[in-house]
Design a protein that fits this description.
Order of helices and strands of chain B: EEEEEEEEEEE
Number of strands of chain B: 11
Strand content of chain B: over 45%
Order of helices and strands of chain A: EEEEEEEEEEE
Largest sheet of chain B: 7 strands, mixed
Helix content of chain B: under 10%
Oligomer: heterodimer
Number of strands of chain A: 11
Number of helices of chain A: 0
Number of helices of chain B: 0
Chain lengths: 113, 114
Amino acid sequence: DQQVKQNSPSLSVQEGRISILNCDYTNSMFDYFLWYKKYPAEGPTFLISISSIKDKNEDGRFTVFLNKSAKHLSLHIVPSQPGDSAVYFCAASVKTSYDKVIFGPGTSLSVIP
Amino acid sequence: DAGVIQSPRHEVTEMGQEVTLRCKPISGHNSLFWYRQTMMRGLELLIYFNNNVPIDDSGMPEDRFSAKMPNASFSTLKIQPSEPRDSAVYFCASSLDPPGNTIYFGEGSWLTVV
């Protein structure tokens, strides 16, 4: 029973266009959400995060949107670049005394030059 | 700055053998995580420690898997006996309290059980 879902295993986008990666979660207790990026043969690296008190967080070309009522978040990359080609993991956690971060299965993004 | 260091990077072993994966977290971090990545399930949390104490091991698949953290700078994940379905990439990660801080991953240990 996956608590964090990424229903699109892969996505292809033309360079310069917008990439939209989606994520859904089931646990209403989650209050902190993160996106990680992973290149082949490397560990995931942190990209951007958002707290449940916000509905948008922006960092350069990357923006994360959170819709708490729909238990849905999305990552927008504008404009997309070939170097953005990677696997993107959505993750969620509950701010209890200890940190437990649950990851989704990932979406493989290919940005075509 | 040294990141999370894992060893071995690659391991090929025969079914039934014991496998030990090692991890050195980032100095000063007090939470440590073991994740497993497979095509089918993505990144699964196996176990995590806080201040060297196992907090949640509900993700450990079965008794063949065990993890220890004898001190703040070292952790092991052991599989005994190993099976072909254990083949995956195993990631160690660490973070610093308070909760919600960024988790930093190692480069992973690629395990193949034949």
